[in-house]
Structures are given as structure tokens and as C-alpha cells.
Design a protein that fits this description.
Number of strands: 0
Helix content: over 70%
Number of helices: 2
Distance between the termini: 42 Å
Radius of gyration: 25 Å
Largest sheet: none
Number of domains: 1
Structural class: mainly alpha
Shape: rod-shaped
């Protein structure tokens, strides 16, 4: 009975050690990939901001109807980028918690 109990404990210890090894193996790589993703997304966000600004500049030179349509498009595109930025922040926060 005592031997069986020790074998069970040893098996549980090995299982826990395997789980820790698995986390150590994969978690660092995941965080590095998340960090690269965040950097690329930030650059994309910067380009999107430039695009929104340019659309607004162009809109200011157009007729009232086209101007309104372009401004609406720029506003919606900016909102989409805000949403994507929030997704990145959530991903970052989960990686470092």
C-alpha cells in the first residue's frame, strides 16, 4: 500500500514537472510572437492614422456631398483602428499577466 502511494506521488510529480517544462518551452516563444505582432500592428495603426488624415485633407477640397462621404469613411476607418488597438492592448495585457 505504501509503495503504491509513493508510486502515485512520483507519477504526479513527474506529471507536474512535465507540465512546467511544457510551459517553459512554449510560453517564452508565445510572448515573443505576441510582442512582434504588437509591434507590427502598431506600425499598421500608424499608417492607418496617416491614411485617415490624408482622406480628411482630400475631403476638405471636394464638393459637399463627396466631402461628407469621405469624412464619414475616415471616421469609420478611425473607429475600426481604435477597435483593433483595443484588441492589441487586451492581447498584451493577457500575455504579461
Amino acid at each position: 500500500m505504501l509503495r503504491r502511494s509513493m508510486e502515485n506521488r512520483d507519477a504526479q510529480t513527474r506529471q507536474l514537472q512535465d507540465a512546467v517544462t511544457n510551459v517553459e518551452k512554449h510560453f517564452g516563444e508565445l510572448c515573443q510572437i505576441f510582442a512582434a505582432y504588437v509591434r507590427k500592428t502598431a506600425r499598421l495603426r500608424d499608417k492607418a492614422d496617416l491614411l485617415v488624415n490624408e482622406i480628411n485633407v482630400y475631403a476638405s477640397t471636394e464638393t459637399p456631398n463627396l466631402k461628407q462621404g469621405l469624412k464619414n469613411f475616415a471616421d469609420e476607418f478611425a473607429k475600426l483602428q481604435d477597435y483593433r488597438q483595443a484588441e492589441v492592448w487586451r492581447s498584451q495585457r493577457h500575455c504579461y499577466e
